[in-house]
Amino acid sequence: MNREEILNTIREGGTIEKADLAGVDLSGADLSGGRFEKTSFQNADLSGANLLKTGFKKCDFSGCRLDDTDLTKVDLREMNFVGASLKRIKTHMTLLGDADLSGADLSEARLGWSMMQRTKLDQANLSEAVIEKTMLNQASFQGADLTRASLTKVMFNEADFTGTVFKDTHFFKVFLRAANLEGQNFAGISFSTVNADGANLKGADFTGSNISMSNFSRADLSGACLMGVRGQNAMFMDAVLIEAVMTKGNFSQACFGRADLSRAELTEANLEYCIFEEAVCRATVFHKASCYSANFSHADLTAADFKGANMYMAKMHAVIEDHTNWDEALRLGIRLTDKDLEEAENWQPPA
Q1: b vs e for 26-57, b when ≥16 Cβ sit within 10 Å of the residue's Cβ?
Q2: Numbers of helices and strands, H then E, in the chain
Q3: DSSP states of 126-191 as a string?
Q4: Whole-structure pTM over 0.90, yes or no?
Q5: Tens-place pLDDT, residues 117-164
Q6: Run of H or E including 55
């Protein structure tokens, strides 16, 4: 079928089924109200086409050009867009769940209020894309490029970001629960108010980033680099921070309750008003750290090194001290174990 035959069929209200439209030029065409089933658009040109209320079912868009196309409210679930060009597309209330966009070019795309669960975006180009209020749970971004992308209120729960590029990417109120972000480079970017609960962030680099008010509870940050971060009010409850480098980071009022900071490096870190209740700080280095009014109740400080640290008014209730180094530390006003509280905590009802 050629362009005119396709447009005539749409005007007559017909359904185009099992058609081979490979390479057809439909750029700028009015396809609104059309119905396509099991149709191949391989390497076709639909750039700028009007797809308002257009229906697609089991169609193949691999290699297709859809640049500058508005996909508002279009149902494209489970469809093939491998290698397609989707530059500057717009989605709004669009359904792309289980679609395959591997190797697709979505640079400068505006993806909003859309459903893209389990979508495959491996090796896709999403540079400078603006993604807002979109569901991308369990999506795969292996090797994808999100350079300078803006991500606002997006859900990436359980998504796979192996090898994804996040250069100058902006995160705000993004959900990354249980996402695979191992070894990722987030250096110098805005990662504020992000929920990374249970995420795999082993060896991730956050050097100089803004991670304030983000949630890393139960996340694995073993060997991660958080040097010089702005981490005020961040949440690290039950997180694994073994051998993490947190030198000169600002973690004021952050919560590390029950976190494992064994052998972590917190030299010159701002830990004022932080909560370390029941945290494991075995052989952790706190050289010259500011721990003013920090709460270390029930923390394990075995072999921890607080040389030169400011411990003024720190709460050290029932801490475990064994070979802990306090050389040159300021311990003025330090609050030691409250015996009455300890007795109450250890009370057991009579048998």
Answers
A1: bbebebeebbbeebbbbbbbbbbbbbeebebb
A2: 2, 9
A3: -TT-EEES-B-TT-B-TT-B-TT-EEES-B-TT-B-TT-B-TT-EEES-B-TT-B-TT-B-TTSEE
A4: yes
A5: 999 999 999 999 999 999 999 999 999 999 999 999 999 999 999 999
A6: strand 55-57
Contacts of 249 (CB under 8 A, 6+ apart): 226, 227, 228, 229, 230, 231, 266, 269, 270
Q: In the numeric block, which tokens belong to residue 13?
A: 């209200």
Sequence-distant (6+) residues with CB within 8 A of 270 are: 249, 250, 251, 252, 289, 290
Question: Counting Cβ atoms within 10 Å, is residue 343 exposed (0-12), middle (13-18) or buried (19+)?
Answer: exposed
User: Mapping DSSP to helix (H, G, I), strand (E, B) and coil, where does residue 345 land?
Assistant: helix
pLDDT tens track for 85-95: 999 999 999 99
Contacts of 184 (CB under 8 A, 6+ apart): 161, 164, 166, 201, 204, 205
In the numeric block, the tokens 């609050």 are attached to 335
**Do strands 15-17 and 150-152 pair parallel, antiparallel, or not at all (unpaired)?**
unpaired
pLDDT band at 351 (very low <50, low <70, confident <90, very high): confident
